[in-house]
Amino acid sequence: MIKQRAEQLKNQLKTIEGSDSPIVRWGVLLSVYLIVQQWLIDPYFEWRDETLQQLEANQHQIDSLTALKNSEEKWRNALTKSEQAMTATGQAFITASSYALAQQTMYNQVQELITRFQLKIDSQRLQEAKPAPFGEQIDLQLNLSGHLFDIISFLDALSSAEQVYRFEQLYISVNGEQASLRMTLSGFRLQTPESQPTQASAPTINVPTTEAVADTELK
């Protein structure tokens, strides 16, 4: 087909060379233009339009895949942050399966700090459960005595512990380098679907209270 059109174009050009008539020359030139347009120009524009349409379709597909990838990355990032938040929450609260076990866990942690800072337990008492938005509140009443620096270190260790504790009704009585601490310490049990119902009453621990001399009381 291309060879045939080339021969046709060649013959038309020869006609121009062999003719002195302007009408013939213009007629042949018009024929040559039509042949060139049909043979070269029109196919080019058709190819260009098809190519542009294909490029637009490819770009649309790329944009869709990019948006999907970004959405997947955002979803994965959100899921990762959610998992990290859940992990942090689990570390901040006591996750025992029952209130009694949560009490024991909190008591053991506090007892470990009392022993570390060589404080004397004058009295201690675990309270019944209190409802909290995320589970249950565990209260432990403490009366401790010891060196003032050790009591301050004990409170600092509680405030910087991995699990969340709240100080309520905190009093410190100072006598020289010695001090007495009276406080209610609150911990929190995170309630989960696997948690057992709260015990009707909480176990209590009582230690005979020793006499403490108080020159100054800080509230």
From TrEMBL:
Region Disordered, annotated ranges: 193-219
InterPro entries per the UniProt record, alphabetical: Transl_elong_EF1B/ribsomal_bS6
Listed Polar residues bias regions: 193-209
Name listed for the protein in its UniProt record: Pilus assembly protein PilO
Organism whose genome encodes this protein: Methylocucumis oryzae
